[in-house]
Amino acid sequence: MERGDEPTSVVRRMSDLLAAFGPTDTALGVNELTRRTGIPKATVSRLVKEMEGVGFLERRGVKVGLGLRLFELGERASRRRSVREVALPFLADLREATRQTVHLAILDGTEVVYVEILPGRDAPWLPSGVGGRLPAHATGVGKALLAGASPQVIGDVLAAGLVRVGPRTITAPGPLVRQLRRIASSGIAYEHEESAPGVACVASAVRVDDGPPVAAVSASGWIGKVDIRRVGPAVHTTALSITRALTEGGDRDRRA
């Protein structure tokens, strides 16, 4: 192969690797990628590592899935899009029931990325925005996601430093870890002015199978105007409904 042809070959092979993921595939191993693409295993391993480095792929145990960078570039990251599409009617119902601002977010490293936001009436200013990021430890959705994450992910968050975002952001490892344990047990995460002044939030994770959460949903409003303890069950029910819809949709796809 001539040197001048190499960039085109690399781009084509990267495209083949991404195209190897079907509509229902959330993660594939190197051996399966090799089989589906016909690319030599050593080359697949090298490209997978490089694509992880730029966010085109993300590690999930011994396998990899489509990465968040694809979503941020507006390309087709099927798992991310499907979660939003499935969740949207449930999010709308939650906003109607609570009159609060509703979020759908996913975890990327030590941060959350907001996939969808439905503003509530008379909503407070919130630091979130669609496609925007916040430190996971400083948000309700982030804590809900971290509570179901692996010890390695939680360790990365602690190692990165718990920076202060709002007046009451948790900045000490011990209190955060203890709170994550309670969230893992109850399924509901609460936030009081941790992401912004005057803001209260309740969140719950969306989980599929036995893996880490694929997303989290929350309702946010003014402290003193929203009783998040009463809103909590509605948020939790919404997360469970989205989980059920994703699971049933996956079963239908596998039977097709």
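Above is the first protein from milestone M3; the second protein from the same milestone is given next.
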Amino acid sequence: MTAVIASGVEGIGYVAKSSPAARERIVAGAADMISRRGLNATSIRETAKHARAPLGSTYHYFPEGKQQLATEAVRYTGEWVARRLRRELEAGPVAGLRAFLDLWRKIVVDSDFRAGCPVLAVSIEEPPTDETPAALVAAADVFGAWESLLADSLCEHGAEREQAAQLATLVVAAVEGTVAMCRAKRSTQPLDRTAEQLQALVLAAIKG
């Protein structure tokens, strides 16, 4: 993963080095901005500028406005992380855990502790209406997908199903919260401490 993604969109690396399509470029730019500023402080206009895309084309691709763009940014991030997890989990849950931790460590370090997780950012902000926005639903789906990948790997390596599900939730929750702590403290120490304890729990689960 690179700290500066392709075609001039600087940030957390949600797209590969090959030039993405214009629409994907805007989604990646939105993910980066939300990871830094949160959803409420991210506008369509600033996202277009950040992605070096015409404002008109941004509204063309996302006629429903910021909520539609945010929803796609969350889903895009979710799949980007899931692809990495699937690949690393082939070597087992410990390898997957390390990759998950390393991914977020690189994001916070390469952004000088300015970027976090856009999925979490969307989750913690007050919805604009009484209805549950699509972006929040997407965030719940993404967290669930990450948990499922981790839980399935734990089960495949000997953990009981319920224990695996609980541990997978703990891993995702701990890492998401620890990333926020790293940004506040401007240090990776919280991640390093969390990594050690989570690895011990994973090893105990698959050996037990």
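Note on the second protein: The chain is about 70% helix and 0% strand.
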